[in-house]
User: Fold this.
Amino acid sequence: MGSTVSRDDFEWSYSEEPHASRRKLILAKYPQVKKLFGHDSNMVYKVGFMLTLQLIACYFVQDAPWPVIVLLAYCFGGVINHSMMLAIHEISHNLAFGHSRPLHNRILGIVGNVIIAVPMSISFKKYHLEHHKYQGNEEMDMDLPSKMEGVLFHTTFTKCIWLFLQPFFYALRPLFLRPKPVTGLEIINTTVQITFDLAILYFFGGRSLAYLMIGSLLAMGIHPVAGHFISEHYMFKKGYETYSYYGPLNAITFNVGYHNEHHDFPNIPGCRLPKVREIAPEFYENLPSHSSWSRVLYDFVTDPDIGPYARVKRRSKPIPINPANLDVDGDTKAE
Assistant:
């Protein structure tokens, strides 16, 4: 079973998350950072390019042997699908069309979602903005593993299983721990997805649909690009709850590796996040960071100090809801 994780509880913090205060300090010293706010005007083309690539791939794999399909799904299709998930992450912050056109962002997210083969764009937004606003909150932040996960997956072997099953935990955890009413946009998202899946099945066959589904599943588990799930907030150094990754995979993941920068300024699109570090280097150079997502996965599995419990958590406080802080979908806005 391998070595057992030494932690038996989360790292409890009784201070506020670090990003709001650092944001204020940076803006006070470097007000020009505000010029980076806005949206990525090329997002539509990036989403369209990935969608086109996967449709072409579906055509070519329709008669391929199953081992080839699985290999291509892991090495090629899964990478594109994961990149699309991170495009949807950008879109959830309204970074494709800006905050003035929220519905345009939702529509683009639904369209890009189709190659992932499972509807997730609208539901992801419902919970992800709360992860930003209430980072580490025991009731609000659904990015945090559950206590059950910490208890069950505490050895080298079981942590491998947990990584492989991560897509299921990531998708199902909010539904069990913080269920929300289904919205009209979620129904539309699901309807569009089912229609697309049936179209792939009709025109290209089951192997092409399997190629899309297998790619999405594998690339969220034990896969280099999935390393960001662990690298972002798992506590590799005591006292630090968010980590950036400065490596080559940022090029195909919308710079999601610049995660401290992203949490400090969620209104800056990924394509401009490196400039935040260039403008205000002294705020980031001394923070612990990662240079390899593959190494992050290896360390997570083998290091007895790291496991699902290696997250900073905060006690929940009564949270007043101001209607002015809700977006067009009824979700809380990211700061």
Remarks:
- The CA atoms of residues 94 and 105 lie 6 Å apart.
- The chain has a mean pLDDT of 94.
- Strands lie at 11-12, 244-245, 289-290, 312-313.
